[in-house]
Amino acid sequence: MLRSRLLSGLLSGVMLLSAASAFSAEVTLFDGTNKIGVVHEKGRTLELAAQMLSRDVEALTGHTAKVSTRLRDCPQVCVVIGTYDSGVVAGLAKSAGVDPLALKGQWERYGRAVLQKDGKTYVLIYGSDRRGAVYGVTDLSRELGVSPWEWWADVKPRRTERLVIDDTARLSQTPSVQYRGIFLNDEDWGLEPWAGKTFEPEVGNIGPKTYARVYELMWRLKANTLWPAMHINTVQFYGLKQNPKVADDYAIIIGTSHAEPMMRNNLREWDEARDGPFNFTVNRDKILKYWRTRLKESAAYENIYTVGLRGIHDGPMQGADTLEARKDVLQSVIGLQRNLFKSALGRSPETVPQTYVLYHELQEAYDAGLKLPDDVTLMWADDNYGYIRRLSNAEERKRSGGSGVYYHVSYWGRPHDYQWLGTNHPELLRSEMQKAYALEARRIWILNVGDVKPLEYLAQYFLDLAFDADLLKSGPRAHLTGWADETFGAGNGTEVADIMMGFYDLAFERKPEYMGFSETEPVTPVTMSDFVKPDGEKAQARLAAYADLVARAEALGARLPPDRQSAYFELVLYPVRGAANLNARVLNIDLAGLYARQGRASANVYSDRARAAHQAIVADTATYNGLENGKWNRMMDMAPRRLPVFMEPVYPQWSPSSQPGCATAVAGGWWNDENALTFVTGQPRSRVIELFTRQATDQTWTLKAPKGALKLSSESGTLDATNGWEQRLTVTYDGTTELGPIDIQCGGKTIRIHTKLLPAPVPADYVENDRRVIIPLASQSDARWERLEELGHTGDVLRSRLDLPTLQAPDGEPLRYRFSTYSSVGGSLNLVGLPVHALNPGTGVKIAVQLDSGPIEVLDFSTVGRSDQWRANVLVNKAVQTLPLRMLNAGAHELKIWPLDPGVVLDHAEIRLDGADKYYGIVE
């Protein structure tokens, strides 16, 4: 039995119809002596579901569960699966005291009841439709101990001597989002080569065998809609006759992306040499015939048709060079597509599920006045980086077709791809989908999952949110903890969640794919990391954070049993180590260059560390592809699209410095002596002294500091090959006033580090340090704001409530933040938010701010299209609005903030005074 916390998570969205489960009776399905069978309603879908359950039972017990369509074949215990009006259900429902007909007309619901009859035990699962019955089966499997990732991530079912459930009658809720699914995309470096060379070589590509495995995973995650893989290297979905048939066998609904209207993969299916240009303005009849042919081929299956028109693949339509022209072509095209539904499918267009995917110029045309039939679902898209571009306004929410969302956790394109490790922050995903659900985007949610691996957790989280919107009410940590407990064993969830949230937090600051500080489309070369500027301390801190994450991940992995090693490597260890090692390769090379300019003997050590980090990625990738006797061979590629950031660099080596002896570098000071540490009276703080040799020769050192306010991490040691001929010394100031110089004896000389104590600012909540003041804005809140926890750059963020009206001027009391400075200089006030977009054209992304008694200023965080500002924002997950400060007098100050638009997300305020160092991010 699963622990109660896990069980309650599995039954999310399920009503218990009898007494509380604490008082229900246990029912033994298997105890080693009895036989168990599975009886299903006739039909391929429930036959496949029964076979899946039989395999699960065998994996758990080692005993086969016989599958049949006849109740008389039932052994001592039997699971019976059918739809509400099937014969196998009707024969038992009355004895079970349930009324399956109550599910008639419902969407993807199921009931479950346990009964004893004629000396046999029956578990009756009855669905409102095929998928409802299937979800009853997959919930039972999970309750018995089978993970949704039993095949796709090697979370092997554990053998047990008993299978036990409780006899509580259950009735599942209607899914929160009607169509929930995934898009297999950018499959060129993972899914397609793996399928073609390893899993399905008989097809040599992604084919029905691969799709069947995808569909079973979708069953276990309660997804119902697939956008199939569609790149040029992949055989188009309808290019293999079995593909749509297998989808129908699994009751999976097929849709297509914005680039594939009318179920057509233009990249592989339109032949310009044969058919002419894919230009509707000059080749209308052939294009209409092309669409009509596919409609007839797909008529027998359950589909959602994408309407509209783009160019071949993912480009603008041909023959229309202006927005007005594109809008006019689309208006004509959609009307003709509606006629095709009627003539080719023999159905009224209003009865055919359709969606218009508002992506790039398709949204621009809609916003410019394109009229869509009321029953067509508006499918809003994010900006490819996790921020939804817009949602339905009040009038659009009245449409019968409703709306939905197409969302990315994998992407190929500008300003930079992220296809490798699955680093999108789950709290950003939750907060954006929470926003979508609140604005009634509930008809269809599709997640771009790339190759499925290594996006397993994010895919499950998204689909769980779609199935049960109650999960949107709280952050992802609890969900992640429960998922990890289920996956790796109860008791491990909290530690896994801590590790993975750290992984997501570091990637939110900057994704590993972006660490080359280069861009794509066009591809630009790798440049020096901003983390190394000005003194390397941000790089050192980032390396230390990743090293700590890896150490914790490896320690936990070493404690897990053998049957979880492959799963842990795929789901946790490879992503964590991959991100850490790419950061280590980039940052160590840049630190090597910085330290070589300083004449350090350690420069070559850092270069060697960079080489070792790259070799570790190569080795881990080979391990991944060799897991489970090569099951995943060719699935993991460490360099998608062969972008510059992934390529192995030249590792520089430097000759020894001509200067002998020791030297120091001091970080975090700004006084007029470069060998000085500055502290602020009354503010405890730690600083770093880096002690190093100029040449690769061993040196002993001792340190002498005045007794009083300073504590040092070490007072003596040796600089040698084991520490790279350098030592990082932490100097901690306790806030009192007894300071003095620090003397270091090394290399036959004394190096004096001066200390400087700056005056205490006026007491306040936030005070100047390092010539800046950092204010985490989520430290204050009121009824107009909601806190999004564990998101952003300072811990939590604030979001102005989604139901707030848009205002032209501030109204009501502001949020107030009191801070003080001891410098009288100029600078800037920077308000840092997340780069969210306006909810819809009727709103913006504006706040009002006031510093002290100065003027009230309106700040707008919105960006236009794919502008340079937007590109810069999404790479760092920040949107910054700046007010110049000509002079800020020393003393107490107050910052006031009012919301003007709903959905604005604020992270922190930074008062940056003249002379402050320019670090990546903030200095804490």
UniProtKB/TrEMBL annotation:
GO terms assigned for molecular function: hydrolase activity
**Where does the UniProt annotation place the signal sequence?**
1-24
Q: Tell me the keywords, alphabetical order.
A: Hydrolase, Signal
Keyword Ligase part of the UniProt annotation: no
Q: Name one GO biological process term.
A: carbohydrate metabolic process
Which stretches make up the Gylcosyl hydrolase 115 C-terminal domain?
779-918
| Annotated transmembrane regions | none
Q: What is this protein called?
A: Gylcosyl hydrolase 115 C-terminal domain-containing protein
According to its UniProt entry, this protein's organism is: Asticcacaulis endophyticus
